[in-house]
Amino acid sequence: MKRHLAKGMKDTNTTEHLLDARGLFCPEPVMLLHKKIREIAEGEVLVLVATDPSTSRDVPKFCHFLGHELLSSSENERTFRYSIRKATTD
């Protein structure tokens, strides 16, 4: 069962992990994302922070291909931030 929150609300029952890939260039941010997402539990959230503009193309494709949920993505002052919920197997 997927839970959806109203905009601006935070799920206090979800563990959130941070992956800082600032200063790294393709393919490193996605390679680190792939490694880190394997280490976290199903349903947990991974926040990726990166400065490589190619992540705006690569991260959504990564999530779609592997079944993870891209909860949000944003860009602020050349820094990209992605919130990804790890896929669960039913």
How much of the sequence lies in strands comes to 25-35%
Using the coordinates shown, work out and report the CATH topology.
Translation Initiation Factor IF3
Distance between the termini: 9 Å
Inertia-based shape: globular
Give the full name of the CATH homologous superfamily. TusA-like domain
Give helix % range: 25-40%
Strand order of the largest sheet: 1-2-4-3
Question: Explain this structure to me?
Answer:
By secondary structure, this protein is an alpha+beta fold. The chain has one domain (16-85): Translation Initiation Factor IF3 (2-Layer Sandwich). It is built from 2 helices and 4 strands; from the N terminus they run βαβαββ. The chain has a 4-stranded mixed beta sheet, covered by helices on one side. It is globular and about 35 Å long. The termini are close together.
Topology (SSEs and partners):
Elements (H helix, E strand, L loop, with lengths): L15 E6 L6 H12 L5 E6 L4 H12 L2 E8 L2 E7 L5
Parallel strand pairs: 1-2
Antiparallel strand pairs: 2-4, 3-4
Kindly summarize this structure in a few lines:
The chain is α+β, with helices and mostly antiparallel strands. It is built from two helices and four strands; from the N terminus they run E-H-E-H-E-E.
